[in-house]
């Protein structure tokens, strides 16, 4: 028997946003709606749907896909566990709108658990996305932070950019210096981001926001070309105090690359709060075919 966990959203137009506002659910949370199909000890299955508000150019926004997998894992695990890291592999584009997510726990210890989730389209015979997650019962230990956020203008002094992807109407992006496709062999780039309308920050939101940086290739050649994230890892450093302090404020995403060649390049980013708290570090490996 299918048990609804959250209400589903039906479209990405203005009426949908009005409906979300009336129900009290943010559009992002509606897009992560899951229905429980089956559950046993340390194993669960859910059904979801590709949401039009989180479409990229030709496929779902990778940050949404990763967040959906994280949501399924957190639904299945003990509520005391926190997400420490999530690695999402993008094997293919899921077919159709309906999705199935199968979640399993590979190992459960006293303080740390290892989970995996596989996303399959209704008409697919093989996985479209897969994720492995580390979860833990966090405890107080020695803390430190290496590095610091770049010195950039405040978000109020930066312009919002309009992008053609549907998800950019749900996530606001304000570059701090050059526009995303300014030709520059140094691919360092930073931008302020947040959900619009505002949404309180949590680990699921951080996973989605980790995929907001424009592809490094665009910085190198100054134009859009076909690219595809093959794998993305998100390390979550934020504490409950950090989430409370940030609320729904802007976050600074500082992005850089190291090297590209022979069809792949890397991408690294850190996400900072306005007051300089390091919340996330993340990395990707990205496929491309541009030759010049």
CATH topology of the largest domain: Thiol Ester Dehydrase, Chain A
Q: What class, by secondary structure content?
A: alpha+beta
* Proportion in β-strands: 35-45%
Number of helices in the DSSP assignment: 6
Helix content: 10-25%
Task: Name the CATH class of the largest domain.
Answer: Alpha Beta
CATH homologous superfamily caption of the largest domain: Hotdog Thioesterase
Q: Which spans of ≥5 residues are poorly predicted at pLDDT below 50?
A: 1-22
If classified by CATH, what would the architecture of the largest domain be? Roll
Report the count of strand segments.
14
Organism: hydrothermal vent metagenome
Pfam families: 4HBT_3, 4HBT_3C
Region (Disordered): 1-21
Domain Acyl-CoA thioesterase-like N-terminal HotDog: 56-133
Can you offer a commentary on this structure?
This protein is an alpha+beta fold and about 290 residues long. The protein folds into 2 domains: about 5-135, Hotdog Thioesterase (Thiol Ester Dehydrase, Chain A), CATH 3.10.129; about 155-290, Acyl-CoA thioesterase, double hotdog domain (Porin, Beta Barrel). The protein contains 6 helices and 14 strands. Strands 1, 2, 3, 4, 5, 6, 7, 8, 9, 10, 11, 12, 13 and 14 form a 14-stranded antiparallel β-sheet that branches. Strand 13 (about 265-275) and strand 14 form a beta hairpin.
């Amino acid at each position: 028997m299918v048990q609804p966990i959250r209400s589903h959203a039906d479209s990405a137009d203005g009426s949908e946003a009005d409906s979300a506002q009336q129900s009290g659910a943010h559009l992002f949370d509606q897009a992560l709606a899951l229905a429980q199909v089956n559950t046993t000890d340390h194993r669960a299955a859910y059904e979801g749907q590709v949401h039009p508000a989180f479409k990229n150019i030709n496929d779902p926004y990778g940050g949404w896909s990763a967040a959906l997998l994280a949501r399924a894992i957190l639904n299945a695990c003990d509520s005391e566990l926190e997400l420490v890291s999530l690695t999402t592999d993008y094997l293919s584009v899921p077919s159709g709108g309906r999705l199935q997510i199968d979640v399993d726990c590979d190992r459960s210890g006293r303080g740390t658990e290892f989970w995996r989730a596989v996303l399959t389209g209704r008409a697919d015979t093989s996985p479209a996305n897969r994720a492995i997650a580390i979860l833990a019962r966090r405890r107080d230990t020695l803390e430190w932070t290496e590095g610091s956020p770049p010195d950039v203008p405040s978000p109020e002094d930066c312009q919002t950019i309009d992008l053609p992807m549907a998800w950019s109407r749900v996530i606001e992006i304000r570059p701090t210096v050059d526009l995303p496709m300014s030709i520059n062999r140094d691919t360092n780039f930073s931008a302020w981001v947040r959900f619009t309308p505002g949404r309180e920050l949590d680990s699921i939101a951080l996973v989605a926001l980790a995929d907001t940086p424009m592809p490094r290739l665009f910085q190198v050649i100054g134009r859009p070309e076909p690219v595809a994230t093959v794998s993305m890892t998100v390390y979550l450093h934020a504490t409950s105090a950090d989430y409370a302090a940030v609320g729904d404020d802007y976050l600074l995403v500082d992005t850089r690359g190291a090297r590209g060649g022979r069809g792949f390049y890397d991408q690294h980013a850190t996400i900072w709060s306005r007051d300089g708290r390091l919340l996330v570090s993340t990395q990707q490996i990205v496929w491309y075919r541009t030759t010049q």
